[in-house]
Amino acid sequence: MAPDKQSSPPSRILVVDDEITIQKFLRSILSSEGFTLQIADNGVAALTATAMFKPDLVLLDLGLPDMDGIEVIRRMREWSTVPIIVLSVREREDDKVLALDAGADDYLSKPFGMAELLARIRVALRRVVQTAEPLFKSGELEVDLASRRVALRGADMALTPTEYDILRLLVSYAGKVVTLNQILKQVWGDAYIDQPQVLRVNISNLRHKLEPDPSRPRYIITEPGVGYKLRIID
Amino acid sequence: MKMDSLDTGALNRFSNLLGTSTVFGYLASILMVAGATLVCEILRPLLLPINLLMIYLVTVVLAAFNMGRRPAILTVVLSAFMHNYLYVPPRYGFAFQRKEYLATFLGLLVTGTVISSLVTKARERAEALREREAETASLYRLSRELVTATDRPAILATVISNIEMTLTVSAALFITNGEELELTKASSDFFPGEEERAVALQANLTGQYLEHYQPFQGKFCCFPLATMQRTFGVMAVALTGDSTRPPEQTHRLLEAFATQTALALERVELSHEAEQAQNLRMRQKLERALLNSVSHDLRTPLSTITGVLSSILVEGDRLTPTIQRELLENAKDEADRLNRFVGKLLDMTRLEAGGMILKMEPCDVQDLIGCALGAMERQLLNRQVIVDLAPELPLVDMDMALMNQVLINLLDNATKYSPPGSAIEVTAWCNGDSLLIMTADHGSGIPEQDLERVFEKFYRVPVPEGVSGTGLGLSICHGIVEAHGGTIHAENRPDGGLAVTLSIPLSLPQHTEDTNHGP
User: Fold this and answer.
1) Which domain holds residue A182?
2) Structure pTM?
3) Would you call B194 exposed, middle or buried from its count of C-beta atoms within 10 A (0-12, 13-18, 19+)?
4) To the nearest whole angstrom, how far is the Cα of B493 from the nearest Cα of chain A?
């Protein structure tokens, strides 16, 4: 899943951070991984660079000197679908939800491990390349989006339409967190935003059907205070 | 503008002389003499005229006892004349020409006067005693009520109501606040004007009693609220002229009230200061402990990291790849530890600053426990975790991220303070309107006397070697659970190990944010 250095041109990453040490660190690590890098140290420069440099991915710090990172995400999302991974020292769940709801694809708290960052970058890039993969596999779980079939250890599972809609949504964002409001909005509609009870109950039911031990879920992982994600187990 | 208190006293006495009570006294004495005369008329055939004198003397005593000095004297004079006129021959005529009759007349006059004066004095003494008693009683009542008043507003309210009750007058309390003198508390019908305020200010500055006389409104008296140390302000009373109490006495009583008030204010202030000093000492102690702990917990991992990095920078060529890797892993672990510690410090600070805003939403308890177990996956790798959930647990209102942190901290403690490989139990059930979650281990527990203290900041149990902790985990749990309106407590299990049980309400009825949205 590493960027294919032979056949395709190297992925282009825009790093938006005003800390020189972080810039240096990311530059040396990401360059050695074969990515092409552009650095922006404020929000305006980031927006310009997104238009000019046309990155495949943006790594965005939220604490920028000229404008808040959340605002940068909103403005980028007005005209761009480039994957955005937020790198921030803000570790409160509220901040994560704000960033994700504004349109960020992923959120990584500083300090982070290199392996973790590279894994997130790969997931984000892969989503761009293979948006509509009809067959999803994670561990013993198989979801065939084309035929609406869900199987566990090869055996078909009977899901309610709502449970299937939730699972399909999680599959389409596999490996990254989907916020409660994003799920509520897409599965139930705008009116259900901030009414997470129905979602909690459905997730609980889904787990009882899919998870070997619902108390220690393997597939549907809760990010407390943020949302859910479907874990990819190779 | 100001009048000497003696002059007003004389004025009051003059008004007493013409007062309604005295006029009634004179009328009553005339009636009593008439009554005595009637009795004498009935007894005249039976007694000698000289014996009828006794009837009049009894009347004088009665008059003196009941009506005071002046009506008694009137009774004496009237009695002497009536006796002489009616019962000393000649009847219906005055007989002063015969010496013995003159002696009888004068004797009655003098004896009557002396008796009336003695009786009146006794009466006045008794009355003074009664008033003194009432005064003592009202002072006692005030001081008793002041003792139970624990703060300044309570004291001021007590004083005003006592003045109103004892003297049926209006009162106001001016209290110094820095340079200003503020009207802090007053009877509901009392509105001191500019002039009165000026007098109060003056009394406060000089610490002397001052009064301000207004022709139609009576006297505005200012008693400074002074102790040996300082003046707290001024007690002002509006005295009207028609008080039955002698003015000196009222003045004395009010002075005593002012002293009591000042002492009570001083007591409250001193105890407040003592409390603050105590709080400050506690805070300083806590801050010292915090600084010590913080500097230790920050510096220890930093020294490892610095050591590793500098050794690789300087000696990098001479170290084998295996050793380099070991060193780097060590540094990485310490960096992670440092990060966790900073996170906990931030959590603690947020909790203490009250900046932790709960994001309450209905949560699945199984999900909550699953998350915490997932986050602790690495530490729980070689352990049996027994999860026991009561069936049909409802969704519970909570801030899931924070409660997840609580469970992680509890599980972290359980793994740290119990033998490797021993089982850990997580149990959740409902009891009435509460959700209870218990984590339990098979470690050595905590000394009984420390069970309460484990939730204090920077408390650390005497730990086995090699266990690192911040002493913040449980106090963060405590803060978060308390913010949820719940409780948390620790107990040693009968068969060894520690059980920590938290309890939070199933739902917060006052949380109505959700109603703003949709159906």
Assistant:
1) 135-230
2) 0.57
3) exposed
4) 25
